[in-house]
Design brief:
It is a single chain. The two termini are 28 Å apart. The chain is an alpha/beta fold. β1 and β2 form a beta hairpin. It has an 8-stranded mixed sheet, sandwiched between helices. Strands 1-2-3 form a 3-stranded antiparallel sheet, with no helix packed on it. The longest helix is centred in the N-terminal third of the chain and has 14 residues. Helices cover 30% and strands 27% of the residues. The structure holds zinc ion.
């Protein structure tokens, strides 16, 4: 039995080789890559959702270069501290799976298991996740309508993805763990300073979330150097700035061959009351 539920009748889905099916006969084919589309709006709209292919590819190439490896390592340590062996983890907004595949392999290397599921609104991101061949079942779905039953997950990862705290409260088991990663004020400030005349600082969301207790916060950061235009472009294209930046400001990036910038994150660990 899969932990995904049917988006039509909310009953459990059983996973078969090429599809998922509920007891009421609703069927959802897997794509040729292996993910399943459980997004209810798929019939009414042909438009693609979420990060597009260019953005997803840029992010995969940037992350696979190891620049944010220190964040992934810290997340592995946090999961090791807070998650018992065999925990069910939902990566809500999993993207191409850089963090969740890393955490799952880290547990495996230590003789433990995590049952990890991924959800993202972007088909392109899930295609890249499936290509990592890490055995993470994944579904196209909205974070605001998760294809998971009430109280079915031990942990939710919410890494740079939208806050859907109401859904997280519903899906987590009592006492379940929510791990959030958010960019700190000066995250990528060097990149912004290269693009904008007046770069701004990021705003930090409040720590308090209804129904949760925050038990751990960690601030980590690192400066890194990008020594080719390709690397700079990959970083730029994976950020929201890429689509917000005008042509003139984009030209500044096209002529850069060298950039030093900082990555600054805050990791917050919560437990559901
Ligand atoms: Zn159904």
């Amino acid at each position: 039995m899969s932990l995904f539920i049917c988006p039509v009748c909310k009953q459990a889905l059983t996973e078969y080789e090429k599809l998922y099916k509920c007891e009421n006969g609703h069927c959802f084919d897997k794509s040729k890559f292996g993910y399943v589309n459980l997004l209810q709006s798929q019939k009414s709209s042909a438009k693609r959702h979420g990060d597009d292919r260019l953005m997803v590819r840029a992010r995969r190439d940037f992350l696979d270069s190891g620049a944010y490896g220190f964040l992934r390592d810290e997340l592995c340590r946090i999961c090791e501290k807070y998650l018992p062996d065999g925990s069910v983890v939902l990566d809500a907004g999993c993207g191409e799976g850089y963090y969740s595949t890393g955490i799952k392999s880290f547990f495996a290397q230590n003789g433990k298991t995590l049952e990890v599921y991924g959800v993202d609104i972007s088909k392109d991101a899930l295609e890249f996740l499936c290509k990592r061949k890490c055995g993470i079942p994944c579904a196209v779905a909205s974070l605001f309508d998760l294809p998971f039953a009430d109280e079915s997950a031990d942990c939710i990862l919410n890494i740079f993805s939208p806050d859907a705290d109401g859904e997280f409260r519903r899906v987590l088991k009592k006492g379940g763990c929510l791990i959030k990663v958010i960019p700190r004020e000066k995250h990528l400030f060097g990149l912004k300073a290269a693009i904008y005349d007046e770069p701004y600082l990021n705003e930090m969301p409040a720590v308090e979330i209804d129904g949760f207790s925050c038990v751990d916060t960690r601030q980590i950061g690192k400066s890194f150097l990008l020594d080719s235009n390709e690397k700079i472009q990959n970083l730029f294209k994976m950020t929201p700035y890429y689509y917000k930046t005008g042509v003139e400001d984009q030209k500044k990036i096209n002529s850069l061959g060298y950039l030093e910038t900082e990555a600054e994150f805050e990791i917050r660990v919560y437990f559901l009351n």
